[in-house]
Amino acid sequence: MSAPSESVAALSGARLWAILRQRKAVLLGLAILAAIVLLAVFAPYVTPYEPNRMRISQRMRPPSAQNWFGTDEFGRDIFTRVIYGGRISLLAGALTVLVACVSGTVLGVLAGFFKRIDGVISRIIDAMMAFPDILLAIALVAVLRPSLANVVIALGIVYTPRVARVVRAATLVIRELPFVEAARALGVPTWRIILRHVLRNLASPIIVQGTFVFAYAILAEAGLSFLGTGVSPETPTWGTIIAAGQQYARQADWIMIFPGLAIVLSVLSLQLVGDTLRDILDPKLRKDL
Amino acid sequence: MRQYILRRLGGMAIVMFVVATIVFVIVRVIPGDPAAIMLGPDATGADIAALRERLGLNEPLPVQYAIFLARTAVGDLGQSIFLNRPVLQAIAERAEPTLCLTLIAITIALLIGLPAGIVSAVNRGRLADQVALAMAMLLASMPAFWLGLIFIQRFSVDLGWFPVAGYGEPGASFLERMRHLLLPAIVLGLNSSALITRFTRASMLDVLGEDYIRTGRSKGLGEPVVVMKHALRNALIPILTVIGLTMALLLGGAVVTETVFSLPGVGNLVVSAVLRRDYPVIQGALIVIAALYVLVNLAIDLLYLLIDPRVRY
Question: What is the predicted ipTM?
Answer without folding.
Answer: 0.88
